[in-house]
């Protein structure tokens, strides 16, 4: 038996609270798109342990080995008959959450193939050490949609004692989901990944959290207010203008303002272009450089894509027209080759 898992793409629109005065920290909003994807196949009927990936995805082999080893060890599983094949991947550290999606695909594939059914996705997320800051990726793998998470208990002896990203928060439980709503099916997302290198990660990302947190609580409070009174009503009413007013305001306050301020000028130029173009909603995902412009039809998305292509002519990059993913990862069982 072979299992194939097709995981969606995560857009992280904003952290909420990098102050912690309430005794909680992080929290965030984000959503899942149908592309680009992680496509991961696994079988446990192979003659020997093997990890296969296209040369463009070689950076992922270490991740696959590391995350699979954690699952093998915890459940006392021998790896000798497993064959992993990463068929499709998208770049890590560009703000799209590929490592979380791959990690969960690995853990899900192994446990499904071994009929380990008693473990939850939240527990698997903890095993592969994801969700230490944001809860969008792990919940989005499960259900897709628009997600609001409430972060972690914060303070001495709590889940998190410092302002640190997921990569340095491996002991924290996956962030708590508050709500999940379906994204309006007619919304189209022009996803732009400019060819300017990766966003902040590793030591650089840790340094940003250390240098800029805590955020003033007045800004944290306004981010929360915009989410409650603009962003979520916009999703529920399928009102892109309402949704976008909240998202755009959030980009000028709190931690998202800092993330954008640290970007290459090309990222800032694209966001400024989206505003001049008259888009109702747009934003940057996580630490960038990926940005999205949101429209309400295929034709509007196609027109926007053509304009962005002109703007990026000298820079290059990848541009996708994406649809909402409201179902999470697709899991298929196939016959072995």
TL;DR?
This protein has 337 residues and is of the alpha+beta class. It is 37% helix and 25% strand. The protein is built from ten helices and twelve strands.
Plain-language structure description:
The protein has 337 residues and is α+β, with helices and mostly antiparallel strands. It has ten helices and twelve strands. The protein has a single domain (2-334), classed as Ribosomal Protein S5, domain 2 (2-Layer Sandwich). It has helices spanning 59-74, 98-113, 121-127, 136-143, 202-212, 217-237, 240-250, 254-261, 265-277, 298-311; strands at 2-17, 24-43, 50-53, 83-88, 146-149, 152-153, 177-181, 188-194, 281-284, 291-295, 317-322, 330-334. The radius of gyration is 20 Å and the shape is globular. The termini are close together.
Summarize the helices and strands and which ones pair or pack.
Blueprint: E1 2-17, E2 24-43, E3 50-53, H1 59-74, E4 83-88, H2 98-113, H3 121-127, H4 136-143, E5 146-149, E6 152-153, E7 177-181, E8 188-194, H5 202-212, H6 217-237, H7 240-250, H8 254-261, H9 265-277, E9 281-284, E10 291-295, H10 298-311, E11 317-322, E12 330-334
Helix pairs in contact: 1-2, 2-3, 6-7
């Amino acid at each position: 038996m072979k299992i194939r898992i097709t995981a969606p793409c995560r857009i992280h629109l904003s952290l909420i609270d990098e102050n912690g005065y309430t005794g909680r920290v992080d929290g965030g909003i984000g959503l899942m798109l149908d592309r680009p994807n992680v496509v991961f196949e696994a079988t446990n009927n192979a003659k020997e342990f093997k990890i296969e990936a296209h040369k463009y995805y070689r950076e992922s082999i270490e991740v696959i080995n590391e995350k699979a080893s954690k699952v093998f060890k915890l459940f006392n599983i021998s790896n000798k008959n497993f064959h992993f094949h990463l068929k499709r991947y998208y770049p890590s550290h560009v703000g799209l959450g590929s490592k979380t999606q791959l990690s969960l695909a690995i853990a899900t594939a192994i446990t499904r193939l071994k009929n380990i059914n008693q473990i939850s996705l939240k527990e698997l997320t903890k095993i592969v050490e994801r969700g230490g800051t944001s809860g969008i990726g792990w919940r989005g793998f499960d259900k897709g949609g628009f997600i609001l998470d409430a972060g972690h208990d914060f303070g001495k002896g709590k889940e998190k004692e410092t302002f640190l990203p997921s990569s340095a928060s491996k002991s924290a439980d996956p962030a708590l989901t508050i709500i999940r709503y379906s994204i309006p099916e007619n919304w189209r997302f022009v996803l732009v990944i400019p060819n300017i290198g990766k966003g902040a990660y590793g030591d650089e990302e840790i340094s940003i959290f250390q240098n800029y947190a805590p955020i003033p609580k007045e800004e944290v409070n306004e981010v929360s207010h915009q989410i409650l009174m603009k962003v979520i009503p916009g999703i529920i009413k399928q009102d892109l203008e309402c949704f976008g007013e909240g998202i755009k305001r959030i980009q000028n306050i709190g931690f998202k303002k800092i993330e954008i301020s640290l970007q290459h000028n090309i990222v800032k130029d694209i966001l400024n272009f989206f505003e001049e173009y008259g888009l109702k909603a747009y934003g940057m995902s996580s630490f960038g450089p990926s940005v999205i412009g949101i429209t309400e039809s295929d034709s509007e998305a196609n027109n926007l894509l053509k304009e962005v292509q002109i703007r990026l002519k000298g820079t290059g990059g990848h541009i996708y027209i994406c649809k909402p993913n409201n179902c999470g990862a697709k899991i298929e069982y196939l016959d072995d080759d």
